[in-house]
Amino acid sequence: MIDVYYWPTPNGWKVTIMLEECGLDYNIIPVDIGGGDQFKAEFLRISPNNRMPAIVDHEPMGGGKPLAIFESGAILEYLADKTGQFLPTEPAERFKVLQWVHWQMANLGPMMGNANHFKNYGKNIADDPKQLEYGIKRFVGEVDRLSGVMDAQLSANQYLASDYSIADMITWPWAMLIGRMIDEAVWEDFPNLKRWVDEVGARPAVDKGWQVERELGRREMTEEEEKARRELLFNQTNEKVRKAREAAAQAT
Ligand SMILES: N[C@@H](CCC(=O)N[C@@H](CS)C(=O)NCC(=O)O)C(=O)O
Hints:
Layout: E1 2-6, H1 10-22, E2 26-30, H2 41-46, E3 54-57, E4 67-70, H3 72-83, H4 91-121, H5 130-156, H6 166-175, H7 178-181, H8 191-201, H9 204-209, H10 223-233, H11 238-250
Parallel strand pairs: 1-2
Antiparallel strand pairs: 1-3, 3-4
Glutathione binds next to helix 4.
């Protein structure tokens, strides 16, 4: 059995989509990132970067004691190697996939996260909306550029690499949100990307994977809870995280 430390966000969906595609059994352990679960001692032992998703495989590849993995890219690569699916072993084909996996991890995910932060969350945080302007321009511009990169790749290929792979699974949960994050009209500029988003989204495992525990993220919060959530998520310095780590260690 595989424990999945999870909250319904794009980075979490990557893992549930892959598990559904592989037909593996898994057990969801919610990590309420707005409530501070990412700072709990048990979680930090598995994911020292205080971010979900993470997994613990109780029957790991190669045998031995349970194996904990954090970072969605590493998790998908591990599950692909464990099951022998969605990541070719032949070097040229393998690296066609892995270059897009790393591209997503280093580019689309972080840039969309920052675009979302400045565009949507920032207005409740910044003292003056003018403080947000440069961040919005920079990160929305990057998302637009990256959408063009995907669109060009998908104009000549059905999928990001040769066959459907972990590169598609890791990219789809962010890519399908581009319209919602920037403007729905943006799809007109990227018809090949839109074709791929619809095609991948129509896969039963993808549809199932991104619906996992959706209700968890939908709880209505009071204004006080919202404020506490913002303080927790958007004000993380080394000192703050270190204190949380120390408090978690003392509590065990
Ligand atoms: N590169 C990481 C990113 C993970 C990440 O940013 N997770 C967010 C939720 S989508 C999180 O756990 N946030 C908690 C926090 O900011 O404290 C991955 O792909 O696994």
